[in-house]
User: What shape does this take?
Amino acid sequence: MKAVILAGGEGTRLRPLSVNRPKPMVSLYEKPVLEHTIKHLKNNGITDVILTLQTLPHVITDHFGHGEALGVSITNVVEGAPLGTAGAVRACSKHLDGGPFLVISGDGVCDFDFNEALRFHTENKADVTILLSRQKSPRSYGLVMTDTAGRVTRFIEKPTWGQVFTDTVNTGIYIVGPGVTPYIPENTHFDFAKDLFPRLLQDGKAICAYAPDGYWCDIGGTDAYLQCAFDALDGKVKLDMPAPPVGRGVWSGSAIPDGAEIIPPCYIGGGVMIGNGVKLGPYTIINSGAVIGDGATVSRSYIEAAHIGARTETDSAIVCKTAHVGDGSRLREGAVIGEGAVIGANAVVLNGTRVWPDKEIDEGARVSGSISTGYNKRGAMFTGTGSVAGQPHIDLTPDFLLRLGSAAATAAPKGDIALCMGGGGAARLAAAALETGITAAGRSVIRHDAAFAAAAAFAAGIYKFALTIFVSQDAENVKLHFFGSDGLPVERALEQKIEASALRGEVTLREARAVGQTRTISGVTALYELSAGEAPPWFYERKGLSVSVSGDSPSERSLYHALLATPVNLRADALPPRFGIDGEGFTARAVDEKGRVLTHERLLAMLCAFEALSGSNKLAAHYAAPVFLDLAGEGADILRLGRDEDARELLAGQPYMRDGIFLICRLCRAVMSSGRTLAEMNDALPPFGMTNAEVSVGRDKAAVMRALAGEYGGELVEGLRAAVGQGWVHITPMAGRRALKVTAEGATEEYAEELCGMIEKRIRQAEARQEQ
Assistant: This one.
């Protein structure tokens, strides 16, 4: 039996690996993928091979010649223009001998027994036999439906989940009988699945399907490429590895210094220079000639003959030959560095970034997206909480901020857009760039004097701005808060509209007479302080609570002024009860009369308890607020934003449930109204402990979350929230990071910490199951 290998693929989804070479020539364990295929054919007794070529054909012909070095006979057929899978085979028809022949892709890896497949084909008198493979995620492939006799009844190309009726997919490997090629028109683009098979079925030809035992992987993209390499390390497929085994799960053709740590499975080619303190693995492939600098860490990555600098961190990345990664740089999950590319020292190549061949990234830069023409950045995006954060000039460049402002202007509802800021020069520049984008798009801007995020949110709700953007600066980072006309973070639908426009690079430019105007209003912060501290007249007859306020930031000064508007006595000392507020104005803290530190969550629970006792039957909170609020506020329904239909409207009207300064002022009035001290209100709460942890995970956060949801059930709103043991856990994937945030609640801090540790263990177990 002869074999036709389809080797004309361009490999668009594999770029930049395939920029300077055809897709079948991408290296896998120091040999082209196509070479592994030809060797497997030879092992099955197939030594007469026809290659169909189209993209950079000379790269393939120069490497293989006519197959002498591999002990096979190779005939090369070059397509003048792409002919499709079946059309390419038709172009080879004069080289076929009239018997059944095998058709196989040159950019896949398999270990099928083709002799058994030919036996099946012959016994079933098939015109075509399609080789199938069972896949856990079949939606990216063509599905094949068969009857009980194994004859094909239906093809489903790239199905939706509603069309997934089987897990057997078309591998693109066929045994074709001699009577089939006349059905393929000459010099015409024609595909097997799309064009030929429907025609054969219509004519009553016998198309059979055979699912052999063994491994198959379509190396369609970089993720599949890495997975195939990892599968070889696990022994799921046997590939020809030039380096010999030197231990369980370790192949190495190079000396490994005593100070290096090798975590199996791991492959190291010949002539690799490994520095002191290097940590390699697990699932790491280092091709011959690579250099790994002192103290570098490489895990779940494929490194060709490249230079990896000292103290670098490379995780789930691909680095092509002759590339140079500078000292102290970090390559994050999904990063691909093309041939000859240079990554400057201490640079960060973010998740999914592709740096094309011969491109240079500046020292200390932080890049994302596809770097194909000079320095190109994707920009920071929403974290899902109505905010965008990043480093100025790296994540938040003036160009990106202008595009973001233009996108916000295009996506926001009708009306004025408010813009305010607090912090240093970087925040001022960011606000100016946003303003330029907004007004250039023809929208008017209202600038006002809110100096922290909570005050800006308050103004958004009072003035009903179409959109409010508050820009803050904390040390080296800038954060943008987006609020709707109700004073709450914008909903995800609006975030997505803004993201989509900004990422497309769209900038809306109106003619000169339609450019938006900028107006300024003042007194917003003063109005905020009066509203937070406002009390009914009868309260002023019940003074007696003396408190102190710590700090001198804008939000802490506003807390002081707001408390002046309440009937409390403000002391100059720092004796308890003492209140404080974070820089954004959303998170409160206190020290009670017994010297105990009270977190924002505990203060909120104290207020919920008071409101419930005072007759409030409904309160609203952000979804992430602790379940403990429901216990503390027994008698009142606690609605959650994002879960309960009326929660957003209710929360907009209860600023003390979302704003730290409003919370403190209302709690002070509650203390005076109840006649109890802050400590006594704290003592009246049910037992409560809460702890948080960040748990790093592998590349598949979604699979881990699916496993945890299957085990614990619970609510799936913002992450997973479930009752576990005698407490509650809230698990959320962290945006842009390979980590999960775990919040545990219990009757005591000790139990909450124990519960948090148990969940971390479950996460590790779920990860291990995913890798099996």
Remarks:
- Residues 161-165, 374-378, 538-542 have pLDDT under 50 and may be disordered.
